[in-house]
Design a protein that fits this description.
The complex is a heterotrimer. Chain A is an all-alpha fold. Chain A has two domains: 39 residues; 205 residues, MetI-like (MetI-like fold, Orthogonal Bundle). Chain A is built from ten helices and no strands. Chain B is mostly helical. Chain B is built from ten helices and no strands. Chain B folds into two domains: 48 residues; 209 residues, Orthogonal Bundle (MetI-like fold). In chain C, the strands form two sheets. A six-stranded mixed sheet of chain C has the order 6-7-8-3-9-10, sandwiched between helices. Chain C folds into two domains: 170 residues, 3-Layer(aba) Sandwich (Rossmann fold), CATH 3.40.50.300; 66 residues, no CATH class. Chain C has seven helices and ten strands. In chain C, helix 2 packs across helix 3, helix 2 packs parallel to helix 4 and helix 6 packs across helix 7. The chains are: A mainly alpha, B mainly alpha, C alpha/beta. At the A-C interface, helix 7 and helix 8 of A face helix 2 of C.
């Protein structure tokens, strides 16, 4: 907190680094102790390593780990593409026009509190267990934050900016294109960031409930087959991919919005 | 009253009438859109434009709701029992997560050594979607209240820590220096300036996490439970009864919306000093 | 005075705001003329409805009563002959200096090459050459205000409205910007309506000063400053005399 003391001694910084490293070491040691005490519940590090190699030598459902990752990513990216385009368009229209918001915003608010995961059973009943239903569920999950953030970004454009545009005689369309859209971008991006993490969570749930490919299916297979090493490996892969996705989005934001600090 | 004042008074009344008309117009549109939506839904089902087995009409859902209040078919619980089971799990997990997560985040944001120690662990666990923890937790704790509450705990905990941490980092330097000038110690400054400054962000964290807690709960109950709304959803799908599935969805949505509304009210009461948009 | 052409006539303007709880009169029967080519200062305390008055002139705000005549013609709403420098800098944070300055020209449908040229001319005039591609957050307060001035000039307005443009600046920069605004005004002669709550600034800049009262705003007195040549010496006796004369008349409420 006390960032004013910028010039901290090297010794102090070293101590902080030691603290950081030791916490990770402690975590690993704690895991090892628990795993040793409960060999039936948790695999040792060696077993996890072996299991990881086996994912490639004897692949699950005939495809290696990478193919499962790609299967999940594909679902997320396709669904998210639609969610971004449609969500921004829809959010924009209900943010821009109070009448449209009263009509369609209301319907949206009716559906909004349904958690995306709760859609899974009915979507499966409607469309079976193929690719489309999973993409649809991810779409439902990731479109909501995009709509919500786009709408509020457009609704709450600062008056000082719209005043400038009005004073200089902007038409309604020019106002939208030159002022409202760009000033809503930070808020839209916040929505996109949320949609990525929601989408990634939802695809996982969908795959855990009904799929034979994808990282979620791996978790489920490990769980049902009493193969905790597989569960832990899958969780790590899921975390890494999730982190990469959100990191990519932050980078993208820096490229699209060069004016933000 | 002068003539001028009378005139002003008159135009004020005009303004109020106009404003009332405008608000009525939008309220009317809002109600109309819901009514039309439900009517279309009902009509689509009545005229069998879709498979009735897969999409029950709103009236049928309402009927099911009445029946389900005392019927235990097909999942072995009445609707009320399911609601109570779900609320119990989610509120227990939520409560403990707030109790531990908020102070942890605040301390991490205030004391650097503490931050250095806890942060790496936190950053390692953060990107794991809470749903992925379900198998691990279930293997250790079974499928009872404790297991599901733990999963909710993990969900809420992460956003509590992140937001409290970010919140307390926003404490203005001026306020801290002011406290120092008055001779306040680190802890006193922490409680009197740091914690209040962090409160708006803490509430943001709570609002985000009540939504994700509720969503994770549904997943947990679908995967491992003997009661609860998620379980009802899953059984409904298992026996192919769309009425049960949709009723569960509606109940989940209604409760979720109620929980966030309660939290918003709490926030408005706690943060009276803050101007809300 | 008769020799001067009236450019803008403000007649009996009043403005009352309403909400559900009540109403509030910000401006009460304000009338004055603006002469062609003059530097007119509206001086008034804190929140006395000066901004509202300017917003009415610029067409951003509806008036409750009265009328505004531009060269004898009644005007309503946004007028192409007027341009504004805003109190909050109001630069678009997502546009570069160049894009901010050429924005009004874009709104008026000027083609890209031409508007670049015009914008460049005014960027040079306000002394920001070399900062065309900077974003507002990279500029200091004074530089941001220069962008605001260039933007207002870019449309070749007959009348420039400036709403406490230097209110956010520190004293040093403010003094510098006052000199700058005079330089720019002398280079590109326009009618200027300048609002401030700072007496010294008013005396330094104004050809005439219209002193407004506290809420609701009414015209208290009009001072003719044209006898004092510009640039003015702020410690000369004449300056100090007129300054104290004005400050005796000023409502102190801030």
């Amino acid at each position: 907190m006390f960032t004013a003391n910028k010039k901290k001694s090297i010794l102090y910084r070293l101590l902080m680094m030691v603290l950081s490293v030791s916490s990770v070491i402690l975590l690993l040691a704690a895991y090892r102790a628990v795993a040793l005490a409960n060999p039936l519940l948790l695999p040792s590090f060696d077993q996890i390593g072996e299991r990881f190699v086996k994912l490639f030598t004897t692949p699950i459902k005939g495809v290696p780990l990478t193919a499962h990752v790609i299967a999940s990513l594909r679902r997320v990216l396709i669904a998210m593409g639609f969610a971004w385009v449609l969500g921004i368009l829809f959010g924009f229209s209900i943010g821009w026009s109070r009448t449209l918001n009263a009509i369609f915003g209301t319907i949206f608010e009716l559906f909004r509190p349904i958690p995306p995961i709760a859609w899974i059973p009915i979507v499966i009943m409607w469309f079976g267990v193929g690719e489309f239903p999973k993409e649809l569920i991810v779409f439902i999950g990731s479109v909501i934050p995009v709509v919500v953030n786009t709408r509020s970004g457009v609704m709450y454009v600062e008056k000082q900016y719209t005043d400038v545009a009005r004073a200089f005689g902007a038409s309604r369309f020019q106002m939208l294109k030159e002022v409202v859209l760009p000033s809503a971008i930070p808020s839209i991006f916040a929505g996109l960031r949320t949609s990525v993490s929601t989408g990634w969570t939802v695809v996982l749930a969908a795959e855990m409930l009904a799929a034979d490919r994808g990282v979620g299916a791996l978790v489920m297979r490990g769980w049902m087959g009493n193969d905790m090493a597989l569960v832990l490996i899958s969780i790590s892969v899921i975390a890494i991919i999730g982190a990469i996705l959100s990191f990519t989005l932050i980078k993208l934001e820096k490229v699209v919005c060069p004016w933000m600090h | 009253m002068s003539v001028k004042q009378q005139e002003l008074e008159k135009s004020w009344q005009q303004y109020k009438t106009q404003q009332r008309k405008k608000n009525l117009y939008y309220a009317f549109l809002t109600v109309l859109s819901v009514v039309v939506f439900l009517a279309i839904w009902e009509a689509v089902v009545r005229f069998q434009l879709v498979n009735v087995r897969h999409l029950p009409a709103p009236t049928v859902i309402f009927q099911t709701f009445i029946e389900k209040l005392h019927s235990t078919v097909p999942d072995g619980n009445t609707l009320g029992q399911n609601v109570i089971a779900s609320l119990q799990v989610s509120l227990t997990g939520f409560f403990f997560a707030v109790l531990i997560g908020v102070p942890l985040g605040l301390l991490m944001g205030w004391f650097e050594p503490f931050d250095s120690f806890v942060r790496p662990l936190f950053e390692l666990l953060r990107p794991v979607p809470p749903i992925a923890w379900i198998p691990v937790v279930v293997v250790f704790l079974g499928i009872g209240l404790k297991a599901k509450a733990t999963i909710i705990f993990l969900t809420v905990f992460v956003s509590c820590v992140i937001n409290s941490y970010a919140g307390i980092k926003l404490t203005s330097r001026t306020h801290i220096n002011l406290m120092k000038t008055f001779g306040a110690g680190t802890w006193e400054t922490f409680f009197k300036v740091g914690v209040p400054s962090a409160m708006p962000m803490v509430f943001t964290g709570l609002r985000v996490s009540i939504g994700s807690a509720w969503s994770t709960l549904v997943a947990a109950e679908m995967l491992a439970a003997k009661a609860g709304l998620g379980y009802m959803l899953q059984v409904g799908r298992g026996v192919g009864d769309a009425r049960i599935v949709v009723l569960a969805m509606v109940t989940i949505a209604a409760l979720g919306a109620t929980l966030s509304a309660l939290l918003n009210t709490l926030e408005a009461h706690t943060l009276k000093w803050k101007e809300m948009r | 005075m008769d020799a001067l052409k009236k450019c803008l006539e403000v007649e009996h303007i009043s403005k009352t705001f309403y909400n559900n709880k009540g109403y509030f009169t910000a401006i009460d029967d304000v009338s004055f003329d603006v002469h062609e080519g003059e530097f007119l200062v509206l001086l008034g305390p804190g929140h006395c409805g000066k901004t509202v008055l300017l917003n009415i002139l610029a067409g951003l705000e509806e008036k409750s009563g009265g009328r505004v005549l531009y060269k004898g013609q009644e005007i309503n709403g946004v007028n192409e002959e007027m341009s504004m420098v805003f109190q909050l800098l109001s630069l678009m944070p997502f546009k570069t200096v160049m894009e901010n300055v050429e924005l009004p020209l874009k709104f008026r449908g000027m083609d890209k090459k031409q508007r670049r040229e015009v914008a460049q001319h005014y960027i040079d005039l306000v002394g920001l050459t070399g900062f065309e591609n900077a974003y507002p957050h990279q500029l200091s307060g004074g530089m941001k205000q220069r962008v605001g001035i260039a933007r207002a000039y870019s449309v070749h307005p007959e009348i420039l409205i400036m709403d406490e443009p230097f209110g956010q600046l520190d004293a040093q920069t403010r003094y510098l910007m006052q000199q700058e605004i005079l330089r720019i005004w002398q280079e590109e002669k326009r009618t200027v309506i300048f609002v401030t709550n700072n007496i010294e600034e008013a005396c330094y800049l104004g050809d005439r000063i219209i002193l407004l009262s506290s809420c609701p705003a009414t015209v208290k007195e009009i001072f003719d400053m044209s006898a004092l040549a510009k640039p003015r010496d702020i410690v000369s006796r004449e300056f100090l005399e007129i300054r104290s004369k004005i400050s005796d008349q000023t409502d102190l409420s801030m």
